[in-house]
Amino acid sequence: MIDFYYWTTPNGHKVTLFLEEAGLPYRIVPVNIGKGEQFAPEFLRISPNNRIPAIVDHAPSDGGGALPVFESGAILLYLADKTKRFIPQDLRGRKVVLQWLFWQMGGLGPMAGQNHHFCQYAPEQIPYAIDRYVKETSRLYAVLNKQLADGRDFIAGEYSIADMACYPWIVPHQRQRQQLADFEHLSRWFDRVRQRPATESAYARAATINTAPVVDDAAKRVLFGQDAATVARGNLQTGR
């Protein structure tokens, strides 16, 4: 059994996609990040960066005790290695998947995340910041579109953790001020992943976890008001 500490963000969805695809038994432990639940001491022992997702594997392959893993990319890689699924077992195929996994972790996710912040959540509209991140998101979409332009079904050929990492960050494309119609090959890939039964199951589960996905002013103070002092305290007093 895997305990899955989760909230309905793109990074959270990545892990649900894997768990649903692999059919691994898991238990969702909701962590409402808008209410500051990511600062609970018991969660920080699992995820010291106070971010979801995180897992605790109660049956690790080494036969040892329960094993916690935090960071979405690390979790995907851990689960792929555990099950020997959704990552090639040969050197060259594995290299391709890892390249695109790290591309998402270092590029698509952070840049789209800043896009979300300045377009949706910032207290004032800053044209330079919006233009900067909307353009960079567009560039990254074009990079992925080019990778898919040779007719391949998925990013690394076969469906893999690279696809699971990228897909949830493309789902909110309209909020990122992107039009999928501008990216023919990416759009084709997006529809293919969206129609997978495991993808449908993952997002159906999300709808039962977070039934009011609104970031209000109190949640913004929690999500966007953190600094070094937050880490030093080890918790967060909401609204302070």
Structure description:
- The protein has 240 residues and is an alpha+beta fold.
- It has two domains: 2-85 and 212-233, Glutaredoxin; 91-198, Glutathione S-transferase Yfyf (Class Pi), Chain A, domain 2 (Up-down Bundle).
- It has ten helices and four strands.
- Strands 2-1-3-4 form a four-stranded mixed beta sheet, with helices on one face.
- The radius of gyration is 18 Å and the shape is globular.
- The chain starts with a strand and ends in a 7-residue tail after the last helix.
- The mean pLDDT is 94.
A few lines on this structure:
This protein has 240 residues and is an alpha+beta fold. Helices cover 54% and strands 8% of the residues.
